[in-house]
Amino acid sequence: MSDPSTPAFGPEAAAERSAVEASIGTDTPRRDAARAPADPPSGADPATEREEIRTFLDDAVAAAGADGVIVNMSGGLDSTVTAALAVEALGADRVHGLILPCNKIGAPHARDAEALADALGIDHDTVHIQSLSAQLGAITPEQFAPHDDPVRSGNASARLRMTLAYLAANATNRLVCGTTNRSERLLGYVTKHGDGAADLLPIGHLYKTEVRALADELDVPEFVVEKPPTAGFLHGQRDADDLGAPYEVIDAVLRLGVDRGLAPETVAERLSADADAETVMALLARHRATAHKRTQPAMPTR
User: Fold this and answer.
1) Which of the ends of the chain has fewer CB neighbours closer than 10 A, N or C?
2) Measured between alpha carbons, how far is 41 from 31 in angstroms, rounded to an integer?
3) For residue 225, how many other CB atoms are within 10 A of its CB?
4) Cβ atoms within 10 A of the Cβ of 281, count?
């Protein structure tokens, strides 16, 4: 394991962090402040999570006989936290970042990711996959082609990104380190065989609000923490719009409805000051409907 006294975004990286924030942080949209839910999540201690995830990464890479990890970096919170934890666990020389913008909307986020990778001291490559996506659309039979359908085109781009991540992992004897969190997984807000595919999910057990707390523990640049969560496929798209609520509310609903197994009506009553019953019901219905994204492919049993 890398020396834990040398944090990825520690005091010795202050100059790099300042340069990153000075160059791109001031122009980054900030997320809307959200009032804490009536029944807030009782998240794990960030310092404890930090140490346990570092141990998990170090053990998993060693057990696989791998030389390190590949991390797809978007410039957002989850991938930045994941990359920082990997650097602390394995050392910067064993972490490689891939930055894979798929359109002009993603270009500013790609520049953020490049600056963050530089601040972490990791090797990284930027590959613009727009032409690859266009070629895929051009050769796909008309009835399947994504064209202007945002869901199909977004899913196709996510799967192309993961194809490149595994190509890099195969070439360098590394593992693909996924960046999805528990909130996304429980709502199926991932693409099958896209961002939902990975060898390791170091923050897959943490709710989004817990990832933010861990980012503070890691001293991740403030502009990253305050970015509005977005998939980055459409201009102005925000996770809160897609999911119907901010993560502060989503996480409280999932903790009560999934972790504690309370009935939707009870969850709605408990959170009535922060979310209407329709939102609670929709979130828990989405959790049930996306169970197939959290299981292995079905097969006949003997």
Assistant:
1) C
2) 20
3) 19
4) 17
d(CA 36, CA 293): 29
Which amino acid makes up residue 3?
A: D
Report the C-alpha gap between 123 and 114 in whole angstroms.
Answer: 10
The residues, ordered by sequence, that sit 6+ positions from 26 with a Cβ below 8 Å of its Cβ are 223
Q: Strands, E, within the chain: which ranges?
A: 69-72, 95-99, 123-126, 175-176
Compare 17 and 255 and report the one with higher pLDDT. 255
Phi-psi region of 158 (alpha: psi -120 to 50; beta: other; left: phi over 0): alpha
Both tokens of residue 290? 């996306």
Task: Give 182-209 pLDDT, tens digit per residue.
Answer: 999 999 999 999 999 999 999 999 999 9
Q: Determine what percent of the chain is predicted with pLDDT higher than 90.
A: 69
Say if residues 95 and 7 touch (Cβ distance below 8 Å). no
**Tokens 């807000």 sit at which residue?**
189
Q: What is the pLDDT of residues 162-176, one digit of tens each?
A: 999 999 999 999 999
How many Å apart are CA 121 and CA 96, to the nearest integer? 10
Rounded CA-CA distance 168/162 in Å is 10
Q: Let me know: does 78 contact 180? Beta carbons within 8 Å.
A: yes
Q: What is the pLDDT of residue 285?
A: 97
